[in-house]
């Protein structure tokens, strides 16, 4: 992070991070610790797992043994969290035997930003404690930072904003403001055949008034995939973060026909900040 914002710059007061038993949870935790330290924020670790019999509508079948298994998993996730935070004081842990997606969405009321792991089809994931980042972004009402495997630091030397003049994009830019004002460069990317996009220029100017080093970029490369184009631009500028609105169309339509959010969640090799 190359710029030093003024004391009145936007900030995050609480960072929530989801823990599971995947091999990437400690790296994700270290990224969240670094993010909390950057903003002097409280760190909140969260984990949950549902009893299989309850999920299958068979409550009572083998409940005691299953409860012990789930409790051991949650304790293992807690220990992983403790190992990551070390002696950090401003931190807490929340865990419950329940559906992990719903529990994280519920607990997000206490956070300014929620950190979760990527869950692409080729990633190694935890089937028991894991959460769907798309579901969390759609439902939690907070910005969600989606972290690829083996990523343990957030280095927004440059940030790319996937801009479309929609409610979701406006929300994402505002939610990312604490990070954008600390980035070395912010590129507001819009797609179109015109040489100018006044909405992207307006957003870039708005960011500049908040102290961000921002510029608009209208892309007209003609790539068949918007996500591929955004990630290509991110690679060109050396971006360590991509900011995007999530699910601008109905989620059902996106999952049936595809969509930029779905493609980014499947292919992005850098962290994504998503807001809905």
TrEMBL record:
<feature type="domain" description="UspA">
    <location>
        <begin position="209"/>
        <end position="274"/>
    </location>
</feature>
<protein>
    <submittedName>
        <fullName>Universal stress protein</fullName>
    </submittedName>
</protein>
<comment type="similarity">
    <text>Belongs to the universal stress protein A family.</text>
</comment>
<dbReference type="InterPro" id="IPR006016">
    <property type="entry name" value="UspA"/>
</dbReference>
<dbReference type="Pfam" id="PF00582">
    <property type="entry name" value="Usp"/>
</dbReference>
């Amino acid at each position: 992070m190359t710029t030093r914002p003024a004391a009145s710059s936007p900030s995050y007061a609480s960072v929530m991070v989801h823990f599971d038993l995947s091999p990437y949870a400690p790296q994700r935790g270290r990224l969240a610790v670094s993010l909390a330290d950057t903003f002097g924020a409280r760190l909140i670790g969260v984990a949950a797992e549902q009893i299989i019999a309850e999920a299958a509508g068979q409550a009572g079948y083998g409940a005691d043994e299953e409860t012990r298994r789930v409790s051991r998993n949650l304790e293992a996730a807690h220990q992983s969290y403790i190992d990551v935070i070390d002696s950090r004081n401003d931190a807490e842990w929340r865990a419950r035997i329940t559906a992990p997606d719903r529990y994280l969405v519920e607990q997000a009321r206490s956070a300014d930003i929620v950190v979760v792991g990527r869950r692409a089809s080729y990633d190694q994931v935890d089937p028991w404690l894991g959460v769907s980042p798309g579901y969390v972004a759609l439902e939690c009402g907070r910005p969600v930072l989606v972290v690829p495997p083996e990523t343990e630091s957030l280095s927004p030397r440059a940030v790319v904003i996937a801009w479309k003049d929609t409610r979701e994009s406006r929300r994402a830019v505002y939610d990312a403001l604490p990070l954008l004002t600390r980035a070395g460069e912010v590129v507001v990317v819009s797609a179109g055949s015109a040489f100018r996009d006044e909405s992207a220029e307006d957003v870039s100017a708005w960011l500049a008034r908040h102290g961000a080093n921002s510029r608009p970029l209208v892309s007209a490369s003609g790539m068949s995939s918007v996500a591929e184009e955004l990630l290509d631009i991110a690679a060109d500028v050396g971006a360590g973060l991509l900011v995007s609105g999530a699910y601008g169309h109905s989620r059902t339509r996106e999952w049936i026909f595809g969509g930029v959010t779905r493609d980014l969640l499947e292919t992005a090799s850098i962290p994504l900040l998503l807001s809905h």
